[in-house]
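debug: dumping io for the single-chain case to check the tokenizer round-trip. Nothing else runs in this session.
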Amino acid sequence: MLLMAWITALSTAQAADEAPVETGYDKGFYASQGENYLIRFQGRVQPRFTFESNGDFSSTQEHFEVSRARFKMSGHVFDPRVKYYLQLDAGKGAVTLKDYFVDAYLGDSEVFVRAGQAKIWASRQQMASTANLQMVERAITDEHYGYGRDVGIAAYHSLGKEGGVEWVVGVYNGTGDKGVFRGETTVDLSTGEGDVEGKFSNVPAKMMPKVAATLGWANDGDVIKEADFKPDADLRFGVGGSVVAAFDHDGGDDGAVVANLDYMLKHRGLTQTSAVYVGVAQSGGSWTSQAYESLGFHAQVGYTLAGKVQPALRYAMILPSQGERTSEVGVGVNGYWHRDGWKVQADVNRQQTGAEVAYLGRTQLQLSF
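debug: decoded output
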């Protein structure tokens, strides 16, 4: 319906502009008019089966789920350099807003300003879409260091298809993209009945500014997606680093800084990527009183055979300043019918924290269009 409404609007404008309305499929279903108007619809669904167990298999859990059900709408209006992007997710039985932002390019340069809700562009592992992973999910380091999404504004210099220097500087609310309930609940103790007043929102009463800065270089733009479908291509290599600082604006003594270095190389079907993370956390009443929190690391390698099958291995580790070390060893395999657009994935992971061992197995089908 949205596509038909857009086509109708473009057709109405055609009388004044005289440019024909074009529709079709190119990395999604699209409608466009001339160079200045484009809308593209895309979707992705990931049905999954998960099996979890403790170390001796005496306690197990298993379930089916739709881990992700994404709907995307993107394009540009008025000018090819004024872009928009919307992404909704209906996975796991709830509809949430993942992304909604505007990219406005500055003149004819490759620099643009992004405003809205989006990923914090500070980790290669996080930059890669969950549609383009070698394993079913990212490593344990991704969740621990918590880049994720947030609402804010950032300036970018994009990498482009030919590679080069990429940098990003942004400032965000610091409270993430997920809504929390804010309001009041009154209960009559004699009857147990009550009223709730409030709403879910991801707009904080007082922002806790998170500032992120990233700098990277690559000899090719194809150093984000994890699988290599170019068996005849020469070496492609990218390296980058970032610093993300969360400030203690609300006086909660919970400021923190995370820095990371990462790289990815691809060569004739082989992909190898690694990253190291260092986190410090506020240890006193002053934000400048930072103490070591943890050191994290992950390494991953995969090889695409004839563009159809890809085995992959991963090791990850988190060394906290307090508590036990956590490690993850995983092996996975991907079967491709149409690259990342139509594939099946499976992985088995052994996770250990101190003496406690757990096993996690996942099988997932993906259709992305």
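debug: round-trip ok. DSSP finds three helices and 20 strands in the chain.
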